[in-house]
Amino acid sequence: MNSTNIELDITKAASSKIDQVDFDNLQFGKVNADHMMYCDYKDGEWQTPKIVPYGPMEFEPSAKVFHYGQAVFEGMKAFKDENDEVWLFRPDQNFERINKSSKRMAIPEFPKDYFFESLKTLLELDKDWVKKGEGNSLYLRPFVIATENGVSASESDEYRFMIITCPAQAYYNKPIKVIFAQEYSRAADGGVGYAKAAGNYGAQFYPTKLAKAKGLDQIIWTDASSHEYLEEAGTMNIFFRVGDKLLTAPTNDRILDGVTRKSIIQLAKDNGVEVVVEKVSVKEIVNAAKKGELKEIFGAGTAATVVRVDGFEYDGTYHDLPTINEPYGTFFKKALQDIQYNRVEDPHGWTMKAF
Amino acid sequence: MNSTNIELDITKAASSKIDQVDFDNLQFGKVNADHMMYCDYKDGEWQTPKIVPYGPMEFEPSAKVFHYGQAVFEGMKAFKDENDEVWLFRPDQNFERINKSSKRMAIPEFPKDYFFESLKTLLELDKDWVKKGEGNSLYLRPFVIATENGVSASESDEYRFMIITCPAQAYYNKPIKVIFAQEYSRAADGGVGYAKAAGNYGAQFYPTKLAKAKGLDQIIWTDASSHEYLEEAGTMNIFFRVGDKLLTAPTNDRILDGVTRKSIIQLAKDNGVEVVVEKVSVKEIVNAAKKGELKEIFGAGTAATVVRVDGFEYDGTYHDLPTINEPYGTFFKKALQDIQYNRVEDPHGWTMKAF
């Protein structure tokens, strides 16, 4: 990344916790690297970003984030290549999206130079936490929370932007089973579904818990009005392969504009795979499954990269997906990871050296 | 309230802050009484509730509430009568509703005896913070937040239930202007609109900010699918008086089942006012306004009690509401407050002596 004139306020950890971590048995999101960034918004502006040792912070119980869910986040990953260089994947997309999310949630936008300088500094300080090897990464979690004290339901006038980081292995290590939503919904037209707003996630936990009780892992959400169109999974966008065509829903105000999703659409075009970005009807997919034409479903997201779906439940019937040779999912996962770990050329300029 | 066998863990404030508070100039939700309650859920159960001096608490930045909005709340008020007795208004309704909200948000339900014993203890300790006089109350804010550390998008296995309290005057002291939603939405069918989930509120701040920029105070939300039916305002249910009939939308999975709303419906029946609890169409209301048959709109909620709407914008046109004699809104506000302040008989057993 280019250097800027931003001066961060840096307090280094007295010692590293890295030796206490078993990197072969990481639970996603549970372990934090040594440092974090926080930056407060007050008196109408973002103050100097601070890098400090990761640890608890004090908040008043009346802070608005606890009551009104005025909070947004992002998910990104840093990858280490064979030469120990650390890379980010399309961080400009995450930066743009967190501000898009913030705007919808009435949170002030964050300055670009603060964002990139903070990432750079954190990754340089904690570079040993970024492990080499397939599936390994340092997961980066930028987020913004409303910190004004006071339980009145209006937007906060104080915020905290933070970046915390967690060493990660692959998010899902086996294929998942899903259910197509018929009762519950994730987002309304005119709502906040397209934003990475905190409340979008908490609202999915209960329906997902019901799905898990039936032995299913995730829900593929459908449109709230008719439940006739497949939209996205809770933490991933979703692709369907019917014959040799790859189908995925267009983004709209209910669907998150995923970075992995748009990268796969581009990679499909690069590799001569026909991609159809149109509303995907439940009927069409169920019929394709019945006729044996539905060859694959896979999810795509930063945490998961690409995850194979091996079957779906709809209307009380479970449909197994076939095991096929050379699945698109595997192909795109490898193509993405080759770029992310700097193992191949990067024709679209997606990667950025971290420091 | 009945006494129970619950032992709370109580740490009293060394001294009271009450003398520092200007009770004639309170900003809603900004000042907290001396004590608060918190109760942690871990290892599968709610621990002993603790009463402690109000103040900041430590949270890890990876606590799930900051990332996934897994949080719910309630709003209640305690009133002081002329004999210095402190009363709660239908607290059973708030207790039931917070557990209903919790269930939808995959949060474990809170025990009834913990809830009531905590309220009783807090109100007894901080009884001087409940001021006599019209519009004065101690606002009570029970809430639950997900406190497990770890940025993976699934329900927390640790929670904190809290009650904080704020001395309050009337929430809105003047009539408000509203806009009927045509673009943005509050809740989806199959979503969490009926729950007091934190994210429902944060999601309204941006559209409300746009409304405020046009000189309007609040949005009356319509159904997300068609925007043809009027549902609720952000922090209130909503009533329309057409001729002498009182109309309000039935509750559904998008609309909060308000305690003030259901109390007004009962009071209307008690007083021979015809109440129609049916879908209220935008067309019907706009036509009634044009014909001069729309006599009143008012909002009803715990924070606001009853607030008069003096006009609404729809489709770019602002419709003024007439000033009428003996408005229903004023009548119901007085009828409610007479019960809340223990000035009249309470035929439905709505009030409960706090301690």
UniProtKB/TrEMBL annotation, chains A, B:
Organism: Psychroflexus longus
Entries under Pfam families matching the protein: Aminotran_4
Keywords: Amino-acid biosynthesis, Aminotransferase, Branched-chain amino acid biosynthesis, Pyridoxal phosphate, Transferase
Coiled coil: none
Family indicated by similarity: Belongs to the class-IV pyridoxal-phosphate-dependent aminotransferase family.
Pathway(s) annotated for this protein in UniProt: Amino-acid biosynthesis; L-leucine biosynthesis; L-leucine from 3-methyl-2-oxobutanoate: step 4/4; Amino-acid biosynthesis; L-valine biosynthesis; L-valine from pyruvate: step 4/4; Amino-acid biosynthesis; L-isoleucine biosynthesis; L-isoleucine from 2-oxobutanoate: step 4/4
Name of this chain's protein: Branched-chain-amino-acid aminotransferase
Function: Acts on leucine, isoleucine and valine.
InterPro entries, per database record: Aminotrans_IV, Aminotrans_IV_CS, Aminotransferase-like, B_amino_transII, BCAT-like_C, BCAT-like_N, BCAT_family
NCBIfam families: ilvE_II (TIGR01123), PRK13357.1 (NF009897)
Enzyme class per UniProt: transferase
Cofactor(s) needed by this chain: pyridoxal 5'-phosphate
